[in-house]
Write a structure and sequence with these properties.
single chain; mainly alpha; 2 domains; elongated
Length: 243
Amino acid sequence: MPTATQSIGEIVTAEPSAVAVLERFEIDLCSQADAQLERVCAELQLSVDQVLEKLADAESRAHGAMVPDLERYSLTRLIQHIVRTHHQRVRQELPRFVELSQRVATKHGERAPHFKTVAALIEQLRNEMFAHLAKEELMLFPHIARLEEAAEDSLAVLTACFRSVAQPISVMLKEHDSAEDVVAQVRELTNGFETPSWACPRNSAFHSGFAAFEKDLRQHVHVENDLLFPRAIALEKELRQER
């Protein structure tokens, strides 16, 4: 847990989730990196206790969740988990990484010219993933939920703009591959998200934070590719055989 006597840089290095909290309080991660949190709060007339509380909440959310037994979930509940956990993280984190990478590219362009490419890749990833989430939440996921409803109600009528649920799923699989490819390019450009010795807190926050995002993305893709999609395809096949 962060303390009032830690410097801004120490807090950010120890916990990437602190970046968004500190920036909401308009604390400059670079110019105030060496200053203790209590001093910065005093200068900005902030309540250090309130800042510490928000930092602790962010850290708890980032690390305190229990891993559920997803294989036991119904399809509808699994969809809810995906949207509330992984989709929400994409929507919260990618805009922040776009901003962080652009700032690093602007401020440290001479030392890290590759960050211009990194920033462009992160922006590409945000745009592609936001479109991907919309397709899943507005089209594919509701249809999968209706498949599960139809399995319980023989009178339910299934309609869709595609012949089989496998068709949109095949598109989602390709888009998952594309997202993972972009992340792999960022990993390569940043030497495995290794924080350089000259890095400022914002730079450190990007590297450690994006490494955590990559880990969540792998879990996100696994849950959809290996749990949700195969079960949806199998259920549709079963329903067609029964009707």
